[in-house]
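#data-curation
PF: Archiving a pair of folding outputs for the training set. Convention for this channel: one message per protein, sequence first, structure tokens after, nothing in between. First:
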Amino acid sequence: MSELKSNLLSIRNGGLFKFTTRLLMNIDTENMDTYKQQILNAGNNKAYGAGDNSEEVMMIYNNLLEEKYKSSGLIDTIWKSNPNAYLSEQ
């Protein structure tokens, strides 16, 4: 159990995890509250033994990115805070 906690903690403290989590939580889109709730629900389901739902989480994540980046490749929405602050915080 302690090895599992250690592994989870190292993943949690990893730079990519922090950046991705902060990116997700700061994307300002019309449906952001719905996406956040879906991601939290998917995480809770896995924590309570509902099985592997990584595909579900990735689908939610992809929907978020599609809403944020349109076909032009440019950011379509405004960040609630300065995204560069997260890049320098690692």
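PF: Second:
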Amino acid sequence: GVVISVLTAIGDLAEVNGVKIQPWMGELLAILLEMLGDASSPEKRGVALWALGQLVGATGFVVRPYNQYPALLDTLINFLKTEQQPIIRRETIRVLGLLGALDPYKHKMNLGQIDTQVDSTALLSMTDLKSEAEA
């Protein structure tokens, strides 16, 4: 119905002019992730997954969604494990590819599985070192 049409419009809008939609990425991601968790409507989840891929691909908003929404990676991997429809599995793989690689250590930190209060100055990822070198 209406929700699916709105999600499709968001995905199409991102494809046409992704740069202009960047200021709303935080809000849009929150809505899309809520839709991805809606087990009552597989069609809604499929369109939300497609729209997420469109947004990420058009805006270049990669890896950051994992940091803002630590459960996203687990949600997508769970889709691969449980989803029966090949089209949704394929779209999940596409979205994972668009989102990019995530440092496993940082992901565990985001999930709260690693204590960040420990002296973390000795543990820096390559992206952190690169950022510090550019600063």
